Amino acid sequence: MIYGRILFPSSKLCTFESSKRLLEQPNFELQNIYRSLEVIAKESDFIQSQLYKNSLAVSKRNDRILYYDCTNYFFEIEQEDGLKQYGPSKENRPNPIVEMGLFMDGDGIPLAFNIHSGNTNEQVTLKPLEKQIIEDFKLSKFVVCTDAGLSSNANRKFNNINGRSFITTQSIKKLKQFLKEWALEPTGWRHNDSKETFDLNLFDENESLCEQYKNMTFYKERWIKENDLEQN
Questions:
Q1: CB-based contacts of 50: which residues, under 8 Å, 6+ apart?
Q2: How many CB atoms within 10 Å of residue 132?
Q3: What is the layout of strands, in order, in the sheet containing 143-146?
Q4: What is the largest CA-CA distance in the chain?
Q5: Domain at 119, CATH number
Q6: Is residue 193's pLDDT more than 80?
Q7: Same domain membership, residue 181 and residue 160
Q8: Superkingdom of the source (predicted)?
Q9: Is the confidence at residue 103, as pLDDT, over 80?
Q10: pLDDT tops 90 at residue 74
Q11: SS3 116
């Protein structure tokens, strides 16, 4: 079941049908596929850690940059049951859902995941799974990248110690007024190839300047310290 889903990602029924084409025919029926899911679920953490360790023998994993995000899956039922709970659906459907948090490495290859009830706040799902990666995968120094919805102050502080760092998006609307004005001010912009700063108004007046820098990414940078956390 595990190898089949890795080699030929598909439904459980399709995985069963694919097994009939193997040189050595396995001796099981479709019902055994479904009955195995409970056993696999109990060993999920062990399977993920071993899969990571074995993958290192095949290629070097880009595990110094980790991406984390959450999604959810709905069920065509009306009553909540177990992990299937009513919560904010990504598809805005009025059905019970379960939530999955997924870590990927810097190359976009899945690293670890966890399943939560549909009514779980996604912000609290990052730290437990990250602690599991630190312990089971023996990783310690990495940069965690998330969207703004997962970058609570607690998550930022957790990834600001022991050699870990974080990169996250920041809503300009939610900045304090003086930071909002600084972010939107057309002066003080720079790019990686120059130490000088630019006034973006100049680009409206000079077509040759636009052509010269059309492929450049401009940015602003400053340090702030709020809520006992220093950020760049």
A1: none
A2: 16
A3: 110-117, 97-104, 65-74, 143-146, 165-168
A4: 75
A5: 3.30.420.10
A6: no
A7: no
A8: Bacteria
A9: yes
A10: yes
A11: strand
How far apart, in whole angstroms, are the C-alpha atoms of residue 159 and residue 152?
11
119 located within any domain: yes
Q: What is the pLDDT of residue 109?
A: 92
CA distance 106 to 62: 5
Residue 15 lies in a domain: yes
**Which residues are bridge partners to 127 per DSSP?**
none
Q: Where are the beta strands (DSSP E) in 29-157?
A: 65-74, 97-104, 110-117, 143-146
As a whole number of angstroms, the distance between CA 221 and CA 188 comes to 9
14-65: pLDDT as tens digits: 999 988 888 888 888 999 999 999 999 999 999 999 999 999 999 899 999 9
Which of 169, 194, 210 represents a domain boundary (last residue)? 169
Q: How far apart are CA 213 and CA 5, in angstroms?
A: 47
Is 147 a domain residue? Answer: yes
Domain range enclosing 26: 1-42
